Amino acid sequence: MSRLAVDWTRCDGHGLCARLLSEHVSRDEFGFPVIAAAEISDADESQARLAVSACPALALRLEQPART
Ligand code: SF4
After folding, report:
1. The domain containing residue 14 runs over which residues?
2. What CATH number does the domain containing 19 carry?
3. Which Pfam families match (predicted)?
4. What is the tens place of the pLDDT at every residue in 5-54?
5. HSE-up (13 A, CA, CB side) for residue 23
């Protein structure tokens, strides 16, 4: 399980992530992503990685949970 995160200093709001990961990301009225479900299941991870690699601003990332 990993978590989806946006670097707001980089995101330019073109919404590619919302198109590629519509079950997890929607868009606000300005086009910026709204992460509705940050937790990414193992089944969705390959699609999430595709969205991360497709982000033109390098603003989207997958974070691994901290180990305790
Ligand atoms: S694809 Fe990247 S730059 Fe575009 S809205 Fe998503 S996080 Fe922001």
Report:
1. 2-63
2. 3.30.70.20
3. Fer4_15
4. 999 999 999 899 999 999 999 999 999 999 988 899 999 999 999 999 99
5. 8
* Strand ranges, E, within 1-68: 2-6, 25-27, 33-35, 39-40, 60-63
Instruction: Kindly give the distance from the C-alpha atom of residue 38 to the centroid of ligand 1, in angstroms, as a whole number.
Output: 14
pLDDT of 67 reads 72
The CA 51 to ligand 1 mean position distance, Å, reads 9
CB neighbourhood size of 21 (10 A): 24
> Element (H or E) spanning 49, and its range?
helix 45-54
* Gap between the Cα atoms of 50 and 54, Å rounded: 6
